[in-house]
Amino acid sequence: MYIKRLNLRAFGKFINKRISFDDRFNIVFGENESGKSTIHNFIECVMYGMDGVPVHNKYKPWNSSLYKGSIEIGQGEKSYIISRNFLLDTVQVFKRTDEALEENEDNEINDFLIEDIEVPGDHFFNINRISFNNTISISQLGNKTESELAGELKSKIMNLSSTRDEDISIERILRSLNGIKEDAGREDDEKSLLGQYVLRLEELGKAKESSLISSRQVMFLAMEKKKLQSKIHQLNLKIQEKQKEISDYELSLEKQKFLKAQPHVAEIEKITEELKLIEGDVEACSKEDYIEASETESSLASLKNERQRLIEEKEDCLSELKINEEDLSNYIPSDFDPDKLNEDYALFRANEEKIRGLNEKIKGDKEDIASVDINEIGMFLLDCAEVEELNRKIQINKTLADNMNYASMKKFGKKHGWLSFLYGFLGTAFIGAAGLSSYLAYYNNNADYYYGAGGFLIGIILFIFSKRKRNIALSAKKEIDSMECQGADYILLNSKMNEQIDQILKRNNFEDYPAMADAHQKKSEEKRIYEEKIEVLNKDEDMLKGLLEENTVIRDRLDKSLSSLNLNLSQENLIEINDAYRRKDTVRLQMEYLKNKIDQIDKDIKRLDKEISFEEKRLTMILDANGAEDVESFRKAVELYERYKGLVNRKDYVENILRDIIGSTDYYELKNRVMNVPEGIKEIDKQEVQLDIFRLNEEKASMLKNIDDIHKEIEDIEENSRSLAEIEEEISFYENKMSLIKDKIKAAELAAEKITKISNSIKGDFMPLLRTTISDNFSYLTGGRYNRVDIDENMNITVMSEEEGDRKIELESLSGGTLDQLYLSLRIALSSILSGNKNIPLILDDSFVQYDTKRLRKSLEMLSRESERRQVILFTCQEREADLSRQMNIPFNYIRL
Amino acid sequence: MKLKFIHTSDLHLGKKFDINNFSLKERQKRRQEIWDSFEEIIRTAKIRETQYLFIAGDLTEGDYISYRELNKISQKFSSIPDTKIIITCGQSDPYNINNMYEYIEWPDNVYIIKNTEAVEKLNFPLDNLCIYSISWDNHERNDKSQPIYDLSVDESKINLLMLHSDIGSNERLPINIDMIKNKFDYCPLGGRHNFQIITDNIAYCGTPEPLSFEEEGDHGIIAGTLEKKKAEYTLLPIAKRKFITRQIELNLSYTFNKILDLIKFSGDTFSNTKDYVRIELTGEVNPDISMDEIEMEAKQFFYYIEFEHKYVFQTEGRNYEGNEFNIIETYKHQFDNSDDKLQQQAFKLGLEVLRKEKVVK
Description:
heterodimer, A: about 900 residues, six-stranded antiparallel beta sheet, 21 helices, about 70% helix, B: about 350 residues, alpha/beta, Purple Acid Phosphatase, chain A, domain 2, 2 domains, six-stranded mixed beta sheet, 9 helices
């Protein structure tokens, strides 16, 4: 059987790739990544199908929607085409009927379809996928030392001999199964798991025992308790009996009470009746409120009286205040000075006295003066004075006329006339000189002559002097002329004045002047006295005038002072004022006192008002609170209420008495209770009976305490013992575990037994076949150099060489090349055995990469030899194999990818 | 007037669990859950203002219940003073010298049937009710059926027959239904752990909490009303968890994940995370699939899961014409379709070791 042709219609990187193989030795060369593995896998996938999704995806073509291919297999004369669609995972096998017809996908219909071949690999190679991978594809043995190679080979053969699998060692399997047993150990071995479980179960057994004991104890205690309880029950009955005795006795006592209570109850009922009658009208008013209300009312009245009294007092004070306010002293201004007033008044009176005196004196004096004719004296004195004046003028005129300064005047005029001429002349001279000098200077052109010009100035000054002297001389001339006229006038005048004198003398009856002069002396004296009198009069009048003025001032002042008080100036008034002034402070103090008093009264009234309003309100409140309209109706209500209360109190009192008699017991209940109780008392010693009850109770309490103790004991026991259910569960848990372990051990023993049996049968059946087949192949491959491979009972593997006279050679002594041959022999032997000697193809994938040339030569030689029996396909990435084969003249089909 | 009642039985308070696959912790927890259910019954009785609570035997596990626990029960009963509690002693709590019920102080509303030889009659004239019952006195057998048949009842009253009985059995107080069904207005029965209506007036209430995989389905208490000739009742499920068995038939073509998914999705997720699930695996399994691994993984998705292995490992059909190659293939054929547990275990163990050897290599 051989693979004729591959048609990778679409697989991996290959699209429509066809590869044809020879039925002998084929070398497929392809560099790395050229697709050798793809082709190798293609064969597996077509023959056995895709092994899992990853493989499916790995070779799914990315540039084609198809995913299929076919393999043509030759088997003797026959030829089969195995076509697989990887997308649909369908496979079809066709038998070629017409060799001449070119295989064609589209023409497959021409071929004969063979049904029922699900796995072509199984069908054609007679081995499963695993075996296919293990045997047909032979991987290299590895680049190891010869002894390692020998060891590996030995173990492979040994494993195969005992398990038919080169990887499975029967020793290890049995060891592993035995390990399960060993891990579990034995029940009598404390250190092992089973031993531990046994110990644990013993402990649990003890715990169970103790738990059972505990529950028995509890049961016992519970029984005890039950007994005690029944005793207590008995005691209770006894106690009840005793109590009955007491209660009977007490009932008869109650009967007595009832009898006592009866009249009181009757009274209570009567009061209740009475109360019912007035109950409707009774309002709950407070007597305290009423007392307070009436007190409030009387205090209100007294407050009002007090207020009235205060108002009256205030009226009195006000009128008194008014009198005081109207008192003169109040009108006296603050700056009023009574001393000054008195002083003024005294002065005024004194001045008036003086004025009266003076008026009288002046009157006398005026009469005196009126008696003298002063005009006549005056005329006379004027005439005397005129005469005297005229005389003196006459005298002066005479003097003037005689004694005039006429001569000296003339002299004076002349002197100044001369001086005027002189100055005029000198002036002219100087001007002339100056003119000359100027002329000379101009003419002679000599500067020194100019000095002479200074003479002009002098000349002018001299002219001025001359002018003034001339004026003086002219005035003196005119004076002399007037003097001469005046002298004539004087003489005329004198004569006129003499005439006048004469007239005057005549008029006064005097003859001459001296007589007149004497009379003049007398008259002058008279006049002097007269004038003195006038002077005195004037002085008095002045004085009078001064006094009058002064008194007017004083009067004004007094009037002013008095007018402010609305008083006239009089002695009485003055006294009055002085009096008023003196009592001024007293009045003021009195007024202040009154005002303060009024204020105080006002305050008091206000305070009273407040108090009154407060009290009124209070009263209203109290009345309102008690629902009374006025104090009177309130009083009536209170009286009613008091009566009601009295009744209630009485009722209470009687009820209390009743209570004292019957206690809190309801009377009617009592009545019912004792209705049938005879009136007599059956005396018992209550204390004695009670003591009995007490004793019984004591006994009961002690029993209850015992029960309590039992309770505690039970609790204690149960708390300290494990739950039986838990213990038994644990026991069953461990027992179950032990049984599981034992089962497992049994199972392991059974498995080991089976495996040993199988192994033994393999050793019996398979080992001889393997030995023979390896020997045959080894002999064939070594060209008969080694004729046998031997495996003995103890799994010792030896080879026998013809050359060395059938001596047994240990594998360790073989060369690497020989070991390779042995390995290949083993592989071929296996494939032969597995496939049932079908001579299925041998596929080697890069098996010799690490071989040196010598070893490779041997291997190629060996393959060439094998290819005569079956198809050999060698995948390689090196040209070495092909080159060497050519060198060695080995025929082969060369396929380059 | 209708009488309100609750009918329960077989609580087995304090029970010891013998389910091998239960961990010790789980057994303890389950025991507590039965106590919780008991409290739930008390609560329900209170809320529904139940007048009668019938406990038809096996209230406790007599050999395992402690004094303290019984006191606790008594206390709980005293919390529903308006409910009259009638207790019959059953197979697990027979009334005998060892029964602790005798030594507990029960409240006044509790009536324990202490007569084990003759039928005891409880009369409740206010409700016009008569209850007849007989208790067990041992764990093993009870065949005192005759006294029950001999009963004559006052027809004017509501008559109840409360029994702990397996009516169809030979030794667990067997009763002929026909003998009682017309005589009584209602027969609250105990002794079977699943809810079961025998006739309209005869019913098993089952255990409030199921105790093993034999007790599947809904569990709880019977709640209803009683009148003369008329008992109306229904099952009130109160069980915290159910025991559920599911069958999964396997097929040679099933892969690891397929089988795991079949297990995972065999029931609803809520049930999976709450109930006790047993998976019965039947059919054929490829020996290349590690069932141990599947079971380990499946545990992640369940509150509790256990497996019953009823499947067989089936090697691939083909023999290579007697040339089955290596020892593994041969080994697989050695155990063909053996139903024996040990053989199956041995097969699995050997295969496991062989495979490991191959893989390690």
